[in-house]
Amino acid sequence: MPFNLRFAIFIVACVLAFTVMRILHKDMIPVKYSLLWWIAIVILVVLALWPDFFLFFVNLLRFQTTSNMVIGVFIVILIFITMSLTVIVSSQKNKINLLIQEVSMLKQEIKDKSND
To answer: Disulfide check for 44: which of 13, 28, 29, 88 has CB 3.0–4.6 Å away?
Structure first.
């Protein structure tokens, strides 16, 4: 793997790690939601520091070039992040619906008590 590609991947991993740390430091997301990002960062660092380890998988999966495999890894990481975010959004939607129902019931109770 060319040094330029390895260096670029390492820089991307560092920027991503800095961004995740900053987001965590500002309490914008909980730690459990950042774990998938940390897994992606570790994969990128391993790829940048030990390309021979990655070349084993390139040959095993019969990719023509390493850059094709890198793009494939990025796509897989993004798919997992998208699935994770979909689960989170779905969970939040259910919680919001439950809160709406509870508030509506409380409003009705207050209205009923004020009419008595």
So the answer is: 13
